[in-house]
Sequence to fold (591 residues):
Amino acid sequence: MCGIVGYVGEDRAKDILLTGLKNLEYRGYDSSGIAFMDNDIKIIKSVGKIKNLEDKLNYENVDDYKIGIAHTRWATHGEANLVNAHPHTVGRVTLVHNGIIENAKELKEELINEGINFNSETDTEVIAALINKYLDNDVIKTISKVMDLLKGSYSLGIIIEGVKDKIYIAKKDSPLVVGISDKGNFFASDITAINMFTNKFIFLDDNDVAEVTKDDVLFYSNGKKQEKSVNTINIDVNSKSKNGYPHYMLKEINEEPVVLEKTLKPYLEDFSSIPDLTAYGEIHIVACGSAMYAGMIGKTLFEEKANTRAICEVASEYRYKNNIYNNKTLVILISQSGETADTIAALKKAKELGQDTLAIVNVKTSTIAREADKAVFIEAGEEIAVATTKAYLLQVAVISLLALKLAYSKKLIDNIDTYLDEFKKIPRLVKNVIDRENEYKNISNEISNSNDVFFIGRKLDYAICLEGSLKLKEVSYIHSEAYQAGELKHGTISLISDGMPVFGILTDKELVEKSISNIIEVESRGAKTIIISKESLKQNKDLEICVPDVSSFTIGLLIVPVLQLIAYYTAVNRDCDVDKPKNLAKSVTVE
Ligand code: F6R
Fold:
């Protein structure tokens, strides 16, 4: 994954690069580093979060530098230590890299045979060695030549000893944007790293190389000069504050009512603005992690309510599948960041194979938003906590609206106004749910000392379980699994032991009896069950949370905040780093 940022201009590079790195920390925080350039090149690196690098820089004499490249790392090749931290230098070349070089091993072996020594275990050092090997007066040509040798994905920021006042950048399959201003020019993995310094951006395309100086940015593709258009993008920079909440995760859950209102309002006011999917015989929903679990809710609604075959698949599998299109298919890509590498690859595949694509996406300037045939935006604003909450909920809201519209267009439901009224009430109902904080703290206290937790449910409830389970495990580090309630007894039930918490999600009237049987089965084996249901299906259990009765189009929007808050308070009880869980990154820009 990793994030890169660079600056050349008249201001203090240290301040700009540290700000950029802090805003890129969502892409990884295993280590970070900066290479400053003037007559010399000075490199400072640190292991762990950006704060550690900032502390280290306080003891370094780097305030006068006006040029630099910086990196925050999510380790792929080699452990998270100082040697593997970027920037990497070979000979005259120092660079930072986001991405993965797939043929690094072969290239490294060749270079070692030629007598090159490597310090780190990274694939990045191989790129530096190759550029250094082929370096001549035409740096753009050298970089292009090296790009022809590389397989994989990369965005690069490169400085060269003896080539003063210039930064070179290049990209393929990893995002890279240039920011321009009167006081200098920037590059970064995304605009949020630099949007406090400029609102003028130029997006690089695959295989682009550019030379960035204080007064100009020159773009090249395949050795030829390119003209690029400048985009003016204004982003709210105030969203960074925690608004008095102890964690971004809690702040973002509490923003759910407002962002739901903002996202839903235009569609509810003008139902015709929701894309009509009646032309498609089949819908494929492709995404990763929570976004994929939002898709699972969509799949269930498309099939159950709109009578349309739907497949929901993780993007890292989908991208390598063959023979997947029989009918006229719409491929829906769901992504908060719009930069998830596997989801981008799935989008490219669907387009190459001639399918229509629709993105449900938060970041409007992202690759997925720009490259899909159509995009429906969610209005989550910036989501900073690594574990998604508000963006997930909006993804569910939007895909549920798509399913509602399809069901209505296919004349499978007629009382559309009842459903639209329900959607209109959802922000208020979500607010009421979120406000019941003590109930969630109580449940969290019941599970905080457990080693394992299960979530069971059927159909839509199973889709909800998937997200509840992921949220709990990623922020609290408690092992957790979501299971289709009826499937548990085919093996997994052997894991149920005395006192083990099992969440039963009960929102489906048709299946409630069946799910209750499964709940009794685990209780008979000692499980401590916790029921999350809707009022009409209340079980009167000691540990139970009920939300208001709404249809299956919106019930997920009420149940998931409950599970998010239980995960949150459990993580707090266990003293976990709620906003930045270990080993994770907010945006997964590598395969
Ligand atoms: C979990 C989480 C991840 C993301 C996934 C996809 O809390 O945040 O599972 O949902 O990495 O990210 P996007 O939506 O940016 O494509």
Summary: Residues 12 and 66 are 5 Å apart (CA to CA). DSSP finds 17 helices and 25 strands in the chain. The chain has three domains: 3-235, 241-433, 436-578. The chain has a mean pLDDT of 94.
